[in-house]
Amino acid sequence: MTHIAAEADISGRGDLDVVLRRFYTAAFADPGIGPFFTEIAGTDLGAHLPRITDFWERALFRTADYRRNAFAPHAALHSARELTAEDFGRWVQLWRATIDGLHRGPNAERAKATGERIALTLHKRLHGVEASLESEDGLGFVPLAAVRLHSLA
Q1: In contact, 145 and 112? CB cutoff 8 Å
Q2: Are 98 and 22 in contact (CB under 8 A)?
Q3: CA distance 64 to 59
Q4: How many helices (H) and strands (E) does the chain have?
Q5: d(CA 100, CA 94)
Q6: What pTM was estimated for this model as a whole?
Q7: Angle at 68 (CA atoms; ends 63, 69), nearest 5 degrees
Q8: How far apart are CA 77 and CA 34, in angstroms?
Q9: Of 22, 26, 49, which is closest to residue 57 (Cα–Cα)?
Q10: How many CB atoms lie within 10 A of CB 103?
Q11: Residues near 129 by beta carbon (within 8 Å), at least 6 away in sequence
C-alpha cells in the first residue's frame, strides 16, 4: 500500500476527484452510513462523482457550475430512513479524515469546515431549526478529525 504524505493543499478539480473517490470508498463501506448510499439511494458513483465534484469545486473555488438542489436527495433519504445526528457526525468524521489524510492548507481547512457546516444545516432542515445534535447516549454530533483513513487504492 502506498502512503501519501498529506502536505499539499487542495488545488483544483483533480485533487477533489481524489478526495471524493477516497471519501466515497470509505462511506460506501461504512456499516453506519454506507446503506444510505448503497441500499437506500442505490448511488451510482460513476454518475454521482462528476456532480458532487462540481458541487465541491463551486464551494471551494467558484469555478464550476452547480445548480442542483442538494437538499432534495437528503430529504428523500431521510423519508426512507431517518438521518440522525450520529449519521451526520459519521459523515463528518469520514470527510475530515479523508481530507486530513491527503491535504494540508487553507483550502483543505475550508473543505472540512464547509462539510461540517453543510451537515449541520442539513440536520437542522431535516429535523427542524431547533433540532438537538445530542443523541440518546449523549455522544451526538462529534466529528473526530483524528480518525485517519488509509487508501484502498
Answers
A1: yes
A2: yes
A3: 9
A4: 6, 0
A5: 10
A6: 0.78
A7: 130
A8: 12
A9: 49
A10: 22
A11: none
Cα 82 off chain centre by: 17
Beta strand segments in the chain, E: none
Q: Phi first, then psi: give them for residue 88, nearest 5 degrees.
A: -65, -40
Distance CA 119, CA 92 (A): 7
Which amino acid belongs to residue 111?
A: A
The closest alpha carbon to 60, from 98, 133, 10, 20, belongs to: 10
Q: Are 149 and 4 in contact (CB under 8 A)?
A: no
Residue type, 26: A
Q: How far is CA 51 from the centre of its chain?
A: 14
Radius of gyration of the chain (CA): 15
- How do residues 6-60 score in pLDDT, each as one tens digit? 679 999 999 999 999 999 999 989 999 988 888 777 677 888 888 889 999 998 9
Look-up of cell digits 487542495: 10
